[in-house]
Specification:
Radius of gyration: 30 Å
Strand content: 15-25%
Number of domains: 3
Number of strands: 19
Bound molecules: zinc ion
Largest sheet: 6 strands, mixed
Shape: globular
CATH class of the largest domain: Alpha Beta
Distance between the termini: 98 Å
Helix content: 25-40%
Strand order of the largest sheet: 4-3-2-6-14-15
Number of helices: 17
Length: 484
């Protein structure tokens, strides 16, 4: 019986030991599995996200290997207009730009160091998601695969209106959807023919070329002129603007020996702040500048991302600058308050100001690569809008909206008054030389119709008053986009 008992006991003990051994095994096994899973997750993350940024770096040799095996894909607008495609004769590839100069800066070129979408989307254009059977066939016969197509956020009608409307002026246009950050139009003049870029390279990069290759929309730095009054108005609101205070304008205003004139020396008379904004009254804004607390203008400008890198995947975007410090004299304060002084802004920067006001104080990051499709038009990837964050409060945005609406209903922007949509804006006439007759024509604003929105920023170099040139061009762009 005893031995029987023993016999019964023994397996129990063994089982216990085995169990504890099993537990140790399990711990080791599960740890290994967890480690593997972590590695796999990291690998997928790298392949899925990091590698694209890594490979897309234009100096990466892997891209030139990819180009040996792939016919570069097409670039198209959001409404399916082909902007770039490759002709391949079995040996050589020729890049063709059916819309030529109209999209020169924004689409860019794929040679000479690349630029524009050709540069920013290079990786996607050289990657192929062609059907596996097609790819196997191509590999077997040592043929190139067809690269993926890149769809931009651009709207062909808005782009056409912007390009044609600019005429023979130098300048730039940026139009965007304030609720998504999608760039709808981007024009820079003077322009170039992207299909002959290599042949013209020397003359285009010479010092006498008028910086033709520069994308003025994202890199052109201009005095913002009266469009900056949007920012001065924000600073004034924050300083406790009083509705009962009025401003008397006799056409000019002098402080500390420096005189500010209203456009054409016009005397605007006694006006409320809102009316002064609508009239773009320089003497009012010079007076306001002098009573603002130190650094209020700088803080307001920096809240709108002056002196900051613009959050965007578009390459070669310049920051705008605001440099007035606490020691500025009256002359500099007065000039800065009306958008002269040392302040410099890109047209994209001013589009972001309008866009933020239109979007109730929130900035959406501007972007122009919408999605990627394979050679058969099947979607491979879509880029989603990215919210950068709140730049100004909703209350502040609503006040600025009110001011910008009054510009259109009874101020310098009545050219935009129409029953077909509701428009808001600010004109600008920015002096850039000692000759008072030479001025850039600016307009920034936005419009909406049945929930569809567009923000625009237009500058026409040396064209004169904002209301007579930049505003009519902005109207053409808004009309073309909202009429669809
Ligand atoms: Zn005035």
């Amino acid at each position: 019986m005893r031995s029987n008992k023993e016999e019964i006991k023994t397996p129990k003990v063994r089982r216990k030991k085995r169990r504890s051994l099993n537990r140790e095994f399990a711990v080791v096994t599960y740890s290994m599995i967890a480690l593997y899973l972590a590695l796999i997750v990291y690998f997928c993350y790298f392949v899925g996200f990091q590698s694209e940024a890594f490979i897309n770096h234009s100096s990466n040799p892997r891209l030139s290997v990819m180009s040996e095996h792939t016919i570069r894909g097409d670039i198209k607008t959001s409404d399916n207009v082909v902007l770039a495609h490759s002709d391949y004769d079995g040996k050589n590839e020729t890049r063709v730009y059916p819309k030529g100069r109209e999209y020169a800066h924004v689409v860019g070129f794929s040679v000479n160091g690349m630029s524009g979408a050709e540069k920013d989307a290079n990786f996607y254009l050289l990657r192929s998601h062609a059907f596996i059977i097609d790819r196997l066939k191509n590999d077997l016969f040592e043929k190139k695969n067809e690269g993926d197509n890149v769809i931009l956020t651009l709207d062909s009608k808005a782009q056409e209106a912007a390009y044609n409307g600019m005429g023979s002026y130098k300048g730039a246009v940026v139009a965007m959807d304030p609720e998504t950050g999608k760039i709808l139009a981007m024009v820079s003049k003077p322009d170039f023919d992207p299909s002959t870029i290599s042949q013209q390279w020397e003359s285009l990069t010479s010092s006498s070329s008028e910086s033709i290759l520069l994308n003025r929309a994202t890199q052109g730095l201009y005095p913002p002129g009266s469009t900056f009054k949007i920012i001065t108005a924000l600073a004034y609101d924050r300083n406790g603007r009083n509705d009962n205070v009025t401003f008397d304008c006799s056409g000019d205003f002098t402080s500390d020996g420096f005189t500010i004139h209203c456009y054409g020396n016009k005397a605007h008379g006694n006006q409320s702040f809102e009316t002064a904004f609508a009239n773009s009254c320089n003497t009012t804004f010079a007076k306001i500048g002098l009573v603002l607390k130190k650094n209020s203008l700088k803080n307001a400008a920096e809240d709108f991302l002056f002196n900051t890198d613009i959050p965007t995947d578009i390459s070669n975007v310049k920051s705008s600058s605001f440099t007035m410090d606490k020691s500025a004299n009256d002359a500099l304060i007065m000039q800065t308050s009306i958008g002269q002084g040392n302040t410099l802004a890109t047209p994209l920067q001013m589009a972001l100001v309008a866009s933020t006001v239109a979007n109730n104080g929130y900035l959406m990051e501007p972007y122009y690569i919408d999605s990627i499709e394979n050679n058969n038009g099947i979607n491979v990837k879509t880029f989603k809008p990215v919210e950068y964050g709140r730049l100004i409060s909703k209350k502040e945005a609503n006040r600025l909206k009110k001011y910008m609406r009054k510009v259109v209903t009874e101020g310098t922007g009545t050219g935009l008054l129409t029953s077909s949509y509701k428009a808001y804006g600010k004109t600008g006439t920015a002096e850039f030389s000692s000759n008072k007759n030479e001025a850039h024509s600016w307009f920034v604003g936005f419009a909406n119709k049945n929930g569809k929105k567009i923000a625009v920023s237009v500058i026409m170099e040396g064209a004169g008053a904002g209301s007579s040139h930049a505003l009519p061009l902005a109207k053409k762009i808004i009309d073309s986009y909202l009429s669809k």
